[in-house]
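The methods section describes the discrete structure representation at length, but only in general terms. Each protein is reduced to its one-letter sequence and a matching series of backbone shape codes. I believe one specimen quoted in the main text would settle the matter. An entry of this sort, consisting of the sequence and the corresponding backbone structure tokens, reads as follows.
***
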Amino acid sequence: MAIKNKKVILSILYTALILLIWRLAYHIQIPLLDRILVTEGSSMFGFLDVFSGGALSQYSVVALGVSPYITASIVIQLLQMDIIPTLKEWAEEGETGKKKLNQVTRYL
């Protein structure tokens, strides 16, 4: 029983440590970023900030998270709708087409 409790306690401490590191990293700003230029010059930034739950307005390195990948995935899915015929063909190819689409998404 003591071993089981020790594992639970270690798991909780590990989780707390990871959360602490994440919160500290949240305060590291993206280098060489001009806040005024980004916020005033782009309505797209505001749109992406909504998707990130307001985290992008903190200009943090970890605030980006997976949002660039998700945004690229959405763009690729939209382009598959008869806009780019090659992407539509890849979507219909099965597993090999899916691998090609994933590769294009990562590049984007």
